[in-house]
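Narrative of activities, Objective 1.

The group set out to show that a structural description can be obtained from nothing but a protein's sequence at a throughput compatible with the screening campaign. Below is one input-output pair from the validation batch, recorded exactly as produced.
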Amino acid sequence: MGEQIKKGMALLIIHLFNCLPIRKNKLFFMSYYGSQYGCNPKYITEYILNHYPSDTFDIVWAFNEPDHMGRETGFRKVKVMSLRYFYDMCTAKVIITNFRTTDLFVKRKKQHYIQTWHSSLRLKQIEKDAENFLPENYVKMAKKDSRKCDVLLSGCQLSTDIFKRSFWFEGDIMETGTPRNDLFFHTDHQKKEDILKKLGIKAGEKVVLYAPTFRKDQGLDVYKFDYKKVLDELASKYGGSWKLLIKLHPHMRNKSKDLMFGKRVIDVTPYNDIQELLYISDVLISDYSSLMFDFTLTKRPCFLYVPDLNDYLTHERGLYFEIKKLPFIHAESSEELLEKIRKFEEEEYQNQIDHFTAATGTFEKGNACQQVTEHIKAVCGTEKERIQLEAI
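Output recorded for this entry:
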């Protein structure tokens, strides 16, 4: 069956389901086009499940492969593009995503669409700022999505400024901070132990996470450095036994197995929740990935390994910051990375992180999930109804 025929049939189904009543307590979540249970939608969901009675909201998650998404409870799972998927999306009061939606989300007048986006602050330019680098069909989709959107979340004042300029959006921006970053404000020893156990890491072992972004050519050479020497250098600097976790970008998911690892190196590319990996990591090594900004909230050391810096700046879309002016330590070769680890100055780094955080005007306080949930309650009328019932 041709794609146009499939799309036509889907739009017909949507038209029919859009005639049905909207369920005012139904929340419809999706993350990265149905590929995972993660990012901001996950943390909003878990906040609701942990703080509200189970009958407060009817929570639905859409997945490409719902049977392979673990044993999470408290919400229903639907398969993307199934009849149930379209029914729940069309009859939900609130839709929450972290990505651009397609023509197959036909928003109704009384629906409320919360766009959480998928970063607290970006290094690489986005949307209108990078329009010349983006496919024409994506730009078209993004503009349509922004017209559907009711609320956009922002992690800092600089992000708000970028959104106002580049997101093709003139609606409300909620300056709540980033729901997925609430994790870094709450110490949970049991959670950390559980994550380490899932990864096969012993209690007391220290962790360095290597999480680079992808390149257009999808080559692996840029990710290769002497992992053993880095682990030895960290052990010499900080003491203890170290493990290195490698998480390549989802676009490289099927290629991580081609890297040579070693006994103290674990491939965690398939691991869904990058925030959990940041949470347990004592040190981060990245490159041009915006997760470096999330990691600043931990105030732990972050190194940028950028051996292709000049080439990247020439061939990729523009950056909002100069790499060399960021507060993170950067290295352009394996030898320089080892030297920068050896000479790392904690106090100087902390001062630079504090200055950078203040300059970007952070909204992160560890209560983003609470603020977003209160907004959802107001939209659904849940709190008003509960007060009325208690009064009777």
